[in-house]
Amino acid sequence: MLELNKLYNLDCLPAMVEFPDKFFDLALVDPDYGIGNTWNKSRKDRFFKMRDCTYKNNEIPSRKYFEELFRVSENQIIFGGNYFTEFLRPTNSWIIWDKERDAGKTYMSEVELAWTSFKKVMRIVHIQWDGAKKGKETGIKKIHPFQKPIKLYKWILARYAKPSMKIIDTHVGSGSSIISFLDFGCDWIGFEIDEYFYKGVTKRIENHKLQLRIK
User: Model confidence over 29-88: pLDDT tens digits?
Assistant: First the structure.
């Protein structure tokens, strides 16, 4: 079985097969939404130079992915749940992330939705985030087209998790979740299939660990 507290450059689906039922207390994941790699179609786009990545985001995960995710975890928080309704049961326990964007100045969505398996009321979290601007989270380099703020993950962990938990992230992306796990003190495991992003996240994690040692 794979070790905890490590990030792996692996396909999460065959990796999850290694774990027994309900091994993880929580799955906190942000799978591909199947909306395409539109950031990579224009020379004017800030992500045009990402030629070494294989990331496409053309399809949502398979039914098998969701079956394994539910098998290995007790509870789940799934960003983009509105794209995966064929695999998720109806719930009123959504998390609504308000990005506090000016609708008149951006074509991007003002909110994102996260489906949860918890028996909790629906919640709205207000964290400013507009891609490169990053709201109040200063000093953060954007390394993934759909990067989320560390503050968002910390808000979720404070309300839906405990430091004693084991947490899995199957699509690490920029690594904001892992940074939050490290600060939270839980056991975790992460998977990033794209080598380009895996290298970027690994560097980001090491830099964060160095800062923690300095403090």
Answer: 999 999 876 555 444 555 545 657 777 888 999 999 999 999 999 999 999 999 999 999
Cα 83 to Cα 46, 61, 88, 105, 113, distances in angstroms: 25, 10, 10, 25, 10
The angle at the Cα of 16, spanning 14 to 18, to the nearest 5 degrees, equals 85
Question: How many domains in the chain?
Answer: 1
Instruction: Indicate which CATH number applies to the domain containing 79.
Output: 3.40.50.150
- 143 Cα distance to chain centroid: 13
- Could you give the C-alpha distances from 73 to 29, 152, 210, in angstroms and in order? 11, 21, 31
Which pLDDT tens digit goes with each residue over 167-207? 999 999 999 999 999 999 999 999 999 999 999 999 999 99
- One-letter amino acid at 177 equals S
Q: For residue 125, give its domain range.
A: 6-214
Q: What is the DSSP letter of 34?
A: S
Apex 31 CA angle, 133 and 107, nearest 5: 40
